[in-house]
Each structure stands twice: as C-alpha cells, then as structure tokens.
Amino acid sequence: MARMHTRRRGSSGSDKPATDETPEWSDVDAEDIESRVVELAEQGHDPSVIGLKLRDEGVKGVPVPDVKLATDKKITEILEEHDADADIPEDLRNLMSQAIRLREHMEENGQDHQNKRALQNTESKIRRLANYYRGDEIDEEFTYTYENAVEYLEE
C-alpha cells in the first residue's frame, strides 16, 4: 500500500511473533474478553483502540496480548456477533475524517498545492476502499462526496 501514490519504497515494519497459543501468563477466560470488547465498543472505542486497551490494561488486571489467539475471533468478529460494530469500517472512517480536515484546510488556504494533492490522494484511497467494501460492509449505493462524509461522521 505504501507505493500507491509515490515511486518511493515503503518502510519495513515489525511482524507479530509466529505463535499459535496464548502465553501461560495470560489465562483470561474467552467470555470475559468478549464482554470487555463489547463494553469498550459501547464506550465508543474503535477496534484498534480496543486491542491496545486490552494489551495495556487487560481484563481484570491481566493483559491480553492477542485477542484472536485467546478467543479464536478477531475483535471485529466479536463486535459483529454482539451487534456492536460500526456502520462503516474504521479504516474508511479514518480516511474520510482525514479528507474532511484537508478540505477544511484547503478552504482557508487555497494556495497550498501540496495539501491539494494530499486531498486528491486521500479521496482516491476512499473511493478505492469504498469499492472494496461496497455491498458487504457498506451500502450498495454508497458514493463518496464531502457532504456524505460529513453526514456519516456526524452519526
């Protein structure tokens, strides 16, 4: 994904350790984890933030390094089962909020050509991601416009 709008190479990141079982020091019950995930979602946290909170704060004081290993389900799957998932996926919502911020900046600073290009690239990513999710995660008739993005993020 790093090479989408530039000729530069992406930077390499770290990989998660290749393991298929939860460490013995983290023996939290799967049902407790699921209830905590739903509780955090109802407080308005995104799936990525929920994962960080479970890693750092844990459930009943015991850290959960990997929800998928502990429960055999991803955080988004747990949220879908309990009808606590968001209307639009987190990555699409983040891109839309970025596009809104860029658009508002462009209205005040029309001469900022660098941000104009950043806005074009961001909106391109949104349309590409919307095509991926259309019909499955988002409505079949969804089309990205600035007005639609503002409306979706106000909900």
From TrEMBL:
- Spell out the Acidic residues composition-biased ranges: 21-32
What is an example of a Pfam family matching this protein? Ribosomal_S15
CDD domains associated with the record: Ribosomal_S15p_S13e
A molecular function annotated in GO for this UniProt entry is: small ribosomal subunit rRNA binding
- Ranges of residues in domain Small ribosomal subunit protein uS15 N-terminal: 1-59
Listed GO cellular component terms? cytosolic small ribosomal subunit
Carries keyword Ribosomal protein? yes
Q: Name a single GO biological process.
A: translation
Keywords per UniProt = Ribonucleoprotein, Ribosomal protein
Q: InterPro entries, per this entry?
A: Ribosomal_uS15, Ribosomal_uS15_arc_euk, Ribosomal_uS15_N, uS15_NS1_RNA-bd_sf
Q: Which family does it belong to?
A: Belongs to the universal ribosomal protein uS15 family.
Subunit text: Part of the 30S ribosomal subunit.
Protein name as it appears in the record:
Small ribosomal subunit protein uS15
Origin organism of this chain? Halorubrum distributum JCM 9100
